[in-house]
Design goal:
The structure holds 2 protein chains of 2 kinds.
Chain A: E1 4-7, E2 10-13, E3 19-25, E4 31-37, E5 44-50, E6 53-56, E7 64-67, E8 73-78, E9 87-94, E10 103-104, E11 108-112
Parallel strand pairs in A: 2-11
Antiparallel strand pairs in A: 1-3, 3-8, 4-5, 4-9, 5-6, 7-8, 9-10, 9-11
Chain B: E1 3-6, E2 11-14, E3 19-21, E4 23-26, E5 32-38, E6 44-50, E7 56-59, E8 62-65, E9 75-77, E10 86-93, E11 103-104, E12 108-113
Parallel strand pairs in B: 2-12
Antiparallel strand pairs in B: 1-4, 3-9, 5-6, 5-10, 7-8, 8-9, 10-11, 10-12
The chains are: A mainly beta, B mainly beta.
Amino acid sequence: DAMVIQNPRYQVTQFGKPVTLSCSQTLNHNVMYWYQQKSSQAPKLLFHYYDKDFNNEADTPDNFQSRRPNTSFCFLDIRSPGLGDAAMYLCATSRTSGNSPLHFGNGTRLTVT
Amino acid sequence: GDSVTQMEGPVTLSEEAFLTINCTYTATGYPSLFWYVQYPGEGLQLLLKATKADDKGSNKGFEATYRKETTSFHLEKGSVQVSDSAVYFCALSDTTGGSYIPTFGRGTSLIVHP
């Protein structure tokens, strides 16, 4: 089945220690998104790629970076995680049509100690 | 700008009860509307969608009708099950300005008791 896969499901990192989360897709969608979701809240868009074009949300902290080396893979780098960065991180993909829904991975739960 | 407003949760129901989760939207153009469901510890999944006025989206016993006159897209199910316990998100995509980025509501938690 075509899908969006995130690894790892659970990630523990230390305060200030860089961490990378990964996402892969077999849907061949040209748009990939990274969302941050904290408990009992809606997902918050951090950035997205339209093909290779990177689009950062205005309020995404500089601490968060992303890489998309090819259509299938996308990475979220947190350069110096703080306690406030503990959250669920969701990767999603879509086509560019407004009728096209998002396809989400199961997320990576990040804990910062 | 575009926005989506959902009723506050949690919504607590007994099994086999009727469910309504209200969703209203504000958009400058003619958006497509979606309901997503998030089960504990998982990502969001598309539940249903509607792309134009008066369309009805349906899936797994859930339904929602795109009402342009009331700018609403309320989610309904005639008889809920314990397995429907999850968080439900209403969302829109408005491509009028060329954007495909969806706008999400805050989510409504549903708890179904046996």
